[in-house]
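Changelog-adjacent note: as of this version, every example in the card shows the full chain rather than a window. The one below runs 444 residues end to end.
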Amino acid sequence: MRLARLALLSIEKAEKTCEDCPVKQGIHVGETRSVEVEGILGGKTFLITYIGMMQDNKKVFLRILEDITERRRAEDELRESEEKYATLVENSLTGIYIDQDGKIVFANHRFAGIYRYPREELLEIETWRLVHPEDRPLTNQIRLKRLAGEEAPPEYEARGLTKDGDTIWINRRNTRIEYKGRPAILGNIVDITEQKQAEEELRKINEELKNFIHIVSHDLKTPIISIQGFAARLLKNYQEKSGDKGRNYLERINSSACRMEMLISDLLALSKIGRVASTFEDVSALEIVKEVISNLQYRIKENGIEVVMPPGLPVIYADQARIYQVFENLLVNAIKYMGNTKNPRIDIGCEDRGNFHRFYVRDNGSGIDPQYHQKIFEMFYRLKETRAEDGTGLGLAIVDRIVRNHGGKVWVESEKDKGAAFYFNLPKKKMESDLSRNCHSKSP
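Full-length structure tokens:
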């Protein structure tokens, strides 16, 4: 009875008494009762067990104290954690559900909203009813593989059916869990119907663009070429009869036709970037730059420009034709902005930047005011200094589109009257897999 006496002593010294104390209520022989008491012996929680018994022909009871402070704290923490988890699940922006034996046994508010069902109506509904008939074989196959522990896509898309019978697009993720002691599927869904609709609209727009490009390529270029041909023939055969004024008109007609042809060609080139599949391969940046310089040699010599290029430009993983366009447009741009610079010079080079090759085309020409550094890459934007020059305002826009399609970035560093340096990054070959998925890495 030492334990009982200690228990009794502890209770008698407690700061507060137990209103449910079995002693007050009475306890029968052989009967056991338990009660929890908080705030005794330094703020601890005890489970007090009373056992009715006979001793010396007298009815007594045994009182046993068990310190359950830590257990109660753990239970409270578990309950709080479960409440937080339940709140998180219930307020999730994604639909969460549990599928067991082919039926919905749990669904959060968002899941019910996606399918437009009252939650109570969703419970125990067969999951196949929520799937579009054409996609049921796919979803059931993945579900069975998950339950069997076999490999299955971690994420996939399938069409669903709302209570109203509307078709929606769903992005699904699911995993196998144990729910109430039995296998089940824990699913996570996102309604991507609007995304799919936008993709379809984009597909239609691209199809219209394709048709437009066909019209531009054939129906517009053909008459322009005819205009050029007739203007050239008139200049050749009727030069004396047309006089100076007539020759001037014909030359202006021919110049305008050439400019229009150039604009159409640039628009076609811009429209194809990212739409027509690029051919990535190992190509020599050195050979590409040499070819560009060779083809621009007349303009370079005409302007007395010195072009400096190191012999060690790297082999890069790129679309050769597109990168040729990049270097050509940047060199033409440098020539155009050279102005009246004494000892004009263009430097072409490359720096190793870890995962990237950083190329540059630097000149000592008229420079570009910082306020225009972003605008010059916009379509049809031309600085005042070059508006009288040949050009379409698409050269740098094409450069920007090509470099981004390669997973890189292009930018300019320049100040007015202090020359300009155009930089662009190209990922190295080890990032080939990213390029094949059209991932655009951020450059440093």
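Structural remarks: Residues 203 and 358 are 34 Å apart (CA to CA).
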